[in-house]
Amino acid sequence: MLAVPQQVLAIFILDVGFNLALAIAVAIPLIQAKQFKQLGIVSKVVLLGLANACFYLGVLGQLEQGVRWGLYSALYLILSVIFVMARRVLPFFHRARRGLSGATAEPCLGDRSSLVLMLLFWLVDVFTAWAGLAALLAAALFVVHAIRLWDWHTPGCGRSRCCGCCVGVWCGAAGFSAQGAGSAAAAVALSCGACLRRGGIGLMTTGMMARVILGHTGRDIQRAPRWLVLVFFALLAALFARVALPLLVPAYAVEWMGVAFAAWLYAYAVFLWIYAPILIKPRVDGQPG
User: Fold this and answer.
1) Which of 230, 238, 244, 233 is nearest to 272 (CA)?
2) What is the separation, in whole angstroms, between the first and last Cα of the chain?
3) 146 vs 150: CA distance, rounded Å
4) Does 173 share its domain with 219?
5) Residues 266, 259: contact at Cβ < 8 Å?
6) What is d(CA 26, CA 42) in angstroms, rounded to the nearest whole number?
7) Does 272 map to a domain?
8) pTM for this one?
């Protein structure tokens, strides 16, 4: 039974209100600490809220292309957040794991060009029908991230592990754009499949949460909880069921989606079971936080 417009409107207000509240909650401590350079992340949260609003305006019939604009804008914004996370954190984690000191250096040109190209790709791919230009921008993004992957290499730190997700996603993006992006759903499937090695958005963000929670509660980030492996196996199963199986056996596409949904629920139920006790207890090192 479809929700009546009043119900959708109520969900709209609550959902977009959450985005606004999250942006404020993140911005306040950053401003208090005078970490103004980090406010770029807040801008992405605000833009996610605007994408969310576009989606609901489309559902309510107030914006003709609202659903498409909202969904794909949100997708690209989430990918951009993953790029930022990969740039700032992943090289550090891999170097720390191997006992290497110092930070990896990257010319500002790499950061700025990836930001500008990502912005242009989003605008062209979502709001225009210029498939050829979208293909060129996607290919340029692939080149930029491949160069970043090379620059992040240090002795003892594998290149592909640092930025596999970033490069994989844009391999798929360049591929589907070059084909004219005939099917948006297939495009997303291809780009997700291309980054199967790193596991896609779900595995990347879950892996980051799993490690950050340990570090911010005073625990050793190199000693993951024993049962965490079940979470990642379930997420890999969900990714395979959502992307690969519908392409291999399309007659059961709806059933495969149900399998992916169940695997996703199981993964985060186990994640909650593991990490909820850690989060509600004081830090093990006695430090505040």
Assistant:
1) 230
2) 45
3) 6
4) no
5) no
6) 7
7) yes
8) 0.70
The residue-averaged pLDDT of 272-278 equals: 93
Report the domain count for the chain: 2
Phi, psi of 157 (to 5 degrees): -125, 115
Contact 280, 214 (CB under 8 A): no
For residue 50, being part of any structural domain is answered with: no
Q: 32: buried, middle or exposed (CB in 10 Å: 19+, 13-18, 0-12)? A: exposed
Name the residue range of residue 162's domain: 102-195
Q: What is the phi/psi pair of residue 266, to 5°?
A: -60, -45
Residue 163 domain-assigned (yes or no) = yes
Rounded Cα distance between 120 and 254, Å, is: 34
Q: In whole angstroms, give the CA distance from residue 283 to residue 30.
A: 22
Long-range contacts of 180-185 (CB under 8 A, 24+ apart): 180/131, 180/135, 181/125, 181/131, 181/134, 184/68, 184/72
pLDDT tens across 198-256, in order?
A: 456 777 788 888 888 888 888 887 788 888 999 989 988 888 888 788 888 889 989 99
Angle between helices 184-194 and 66-88 in degrees, nearest 10: 10
Q: Same domain for 189 and 232?
A: no
Q: How far is CA 182 from the centre of its chain?
A: 24
Sign of the Cα pseudo-torsion (230, 235, 240, 245, in order): positive
Nearest to 5 by CA among 80, 61, 55: 61
Q: Retrieve residue 145's tokens.
A: 């991230």
Residue 219 tokens, joined: 């625990």
C-alpha 245: how far from its chain's center?
22
Rounded distance, CA 92 to CA 81, Å?
17
State the residue for tokens 């996607």. 138
* Residue carrying the six token digits 């959450």: 18
- Residue 64 CB-density burial (10 A; 0-12 exposed, 13-18 middle, 19+ buried): exposed
Establish if 227 belongs to a structural domain. yes
Please give the average per-residue pLDDT across 44-50, as a whole number.
91
